[in-house]
Structures are given as C-alpha cells and as structure tokens.
C-alpha cells in the first residue's frame, strides 16, 4: 500500500505509527464484520432466497469496486496467476461461506453462529502448520487457545444445542469456518503481491458471481428484489459495504502479517457481534459475556504478527 505522505518528517511519524497499523485494521475490520452478522440475519429473514441475497451483494460489490478502479484508471489484472487466485479465493472466501451464511442465519441463534469465528483461527493454525507456512510457537498457540476459551465462555451458558434439527446447521457452520481457513492459508501463498486489496477483491467478486449465476439459472432461483429500500434491502446494502472494507483490510493483513495473526480477526468479530446485538436487537448478557471479553484481550496480547511483516507497506 503506497503512502501519500512524502515529507521526511511525516514519513518518520508514519513509520512510528506503522507497528499499530495491523492492530488498528484488525479491530476496525472485526468490529465492522461483527455488525454485519446482525445485518445478515435481518436480510436473511426478509423472505429472499439466500442465493438471491448473495447475488445482489456480489453485484453491488462489483459496481462499487469497478467504479473505484475506473476512477483510479486501474485495469483488472487477468494474468494466469491472478485468474487462479480470483477463482479459488472467490469460491472459498466469498461464494461458499457467504451463501452458507444466508442459509444458516435464520436457523440458528446468533450465539451459536459465533462459534464458527472461534473455529477459524484453530483451523487456520492447523492448516498453516501442515503446509509449513507458519512454525509452531507456543506463545501464539496459547493466544489462540485463550481466544477459543473466550468464545466458549461467551456461548456455553446459552448454547442449548439439541441433538436433532440443529445438527445440520452446525455442520454447515463448521464447513463455513473451514472454507475461510483454507482461503486464508491459500492467500498466504498465492495472493498477488503488487495489487491493491480492492483490485483483488474485485476479481474475487466477479469470479464468485460467475459461480452463483449458473446455479441460480439451473435451479430457477429469482434474481429480482421486491422493495429497493425495505428493512431487508437496507441491511443487505450495509452488509455489502462492510464486506468490501473489511475484506480488503483482511487481505492487507494476510499479506503483511501472515495467516495466524490475521485469523485473530475472528475473535474481534465474535465479541463485537455481541455488542452490536445489544445495540440493534437490545439483547442483554450476563457476566460470562464480559469475562470472555477480558480473556479475548489476553489472547490477542499473546499473538504477535511476524517481525518481517508487521506494518510493512
């Protein structure tokens, strides 16, 4: 990412702030994504088919980012490596998990849905070790464990999971988390290094849309929406805008800090989702919620971005 600051003094001040950039992005993107959980639930309960919702989310994303590319006079790279990245990352990071999210949202409580965001770092850690993109580090592993404990403290008192009915949706949640984890590790190896995150997200969104459209045509799922600015449509628009900014931030984090550090966004998403639930749905929570926040902060403190990546532009 190129800095617009050019004077030596301002360069020095910017350099001093650089170590904080990954943390600020992690928190900002996580808080935004936490809010999108509530927005996704509102949109999913509006009566539209989940694939209709993901179609419009992707279409709006492409229009917004395409406008940005045009204003910056940037052409979308279409080299072989870029096309491979767009296709795989678009499938694993957008088409599959986002579609599942709209299917799952009306069928499970928000507390259970939040489990998936605790599983992502664990899955990412395991996959990164398997493919040797990260070395095992006890301190970082302890941070991941504390993050998982914080989520368990958050959801355990109110789980109430039944052996029937909800099992399929919980399985789909695990599949969603695994998809995100695989996409994160894949991106550490194959993400093009010289392109702006918005450029990469544009390509990923186009690839994902090309996967969704044939499926909708074959299954005769409607493309139309009924009310341009109803509650569900407004929630979808808000969720889309958050997705654009937060996903671009995540790609930046993956590139500059590695898979394990960037995966910690899951904890911020889950915990912030609780507070957004209080604001949007006037939900109330017990002492377990606040205790989990303390444990999560302790876990994040143990996780460090690798030295060669933190804050590098």
Protein architecture, described:
The chain contains 13 helices and no strands. It has 313 residues and is mainly α. The chain has one domain (32-302). 45% of the residues are buried.
Short summary:
By secondary structure, the protein is mostly helical. Helix content is 74%, strand content 0%. The chain has helices at residues 8-17, 21-44, 50-71, 80-104, 110-113, 115-130, 138-155, 167-190, 197-219, 231-257, 259-263, 265-281, 287-302.
Describe the secondary structure blueprint for this structure.
Elements: H1 8-17, H2 21-44, H3 50-71, H4 80-104, H5 110-113, H6 115-130, H7 138-155, H8 167-190, H9 197-219, H10 231-257, H11 259-263, H12 265-281, H13 287-302
Give the count of structural domains: 1
Describe the sheet with the most strands.
none
The first-to-last residue Cα distance is: 5 Å
Mean pLDDT over all positions: 78
Report the count of strand segments. 0
> Gyration radius, to the nearest Å?
19 Å
* SSE pattern, N- to C-terminal: HHHHHHHHHHHHH
List the uncertain runs.
Answer: 1-17, 305-313
Q: In percent, how much strand structure appears in the residues?
A: under 5%
Globally, the shape reads: globular
Name the structural class. mainly alpha
Tally the helices: what do you get?
13
> Which percent bin holds the helix content?
over 70%
């Amino acid at each position: 990412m190129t800095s617009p600051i050019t004077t030596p003094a301002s360069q020095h001040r910017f350099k001093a702030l650089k170590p904080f950039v990954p943390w600020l992005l992690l928190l900002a993107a996580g808080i935004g994504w936490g809010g999108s959980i509530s927005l996704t639930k509102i949109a999913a309960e509006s009566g539209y088919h989940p694939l209709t919702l993901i179609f419009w989310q992707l279409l709006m994303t492409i229009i917004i980012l395409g406008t940005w590319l045009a204003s910056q006079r940037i052409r979308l790279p279409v080299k072989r490596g870029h096309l491979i990245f767009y296709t795989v990352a678009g499938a694993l990071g957008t088409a599959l998990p986002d579609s599942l999210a709209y299917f799952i949202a009306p069928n499970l409580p928000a507390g259970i849905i939040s489990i998936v965001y605790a599983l992502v770092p664990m899955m990412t850690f395991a996959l990164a070790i398997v493919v040797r993109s990260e070395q095992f580090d006890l301190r970082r592993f302890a941070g991941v464990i504390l993050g998982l404990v914080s989520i368990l403290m958050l959801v355990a008192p109110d789980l109430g999971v039944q052996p029937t009915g909800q099992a399929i949706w919980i399985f789909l949640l695990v599949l969603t988390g695994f998809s995100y984890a695989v996409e994160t590790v894949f991106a550490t190896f194959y993400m093009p290094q010289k392109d702006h995150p918005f450029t990469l997200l544009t390509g990923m969104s186009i690839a994902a849309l090309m996967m969704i459209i044939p499926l909708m045509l074959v299954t005769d799922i409607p493309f139309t929406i009924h009310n341009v600015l109803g509650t569900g449509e407004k929630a979808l628009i808000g969720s889309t805008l958050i997705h654009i900014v937060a996903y671009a931030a995540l790609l930046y984090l993956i590139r500059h800090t590695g898979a394990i550090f960037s995966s910690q966004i899951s904890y911020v998403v889950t915990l912030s989702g609780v507070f957004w639930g209080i604001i949007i749905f006037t939900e109330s929570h017990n002492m377990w919620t606040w205790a989990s926040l303390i444990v999560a902060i302790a876990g994040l403190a143990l996780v460090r971005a690798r030295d060669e990546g933190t804050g590098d532009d």
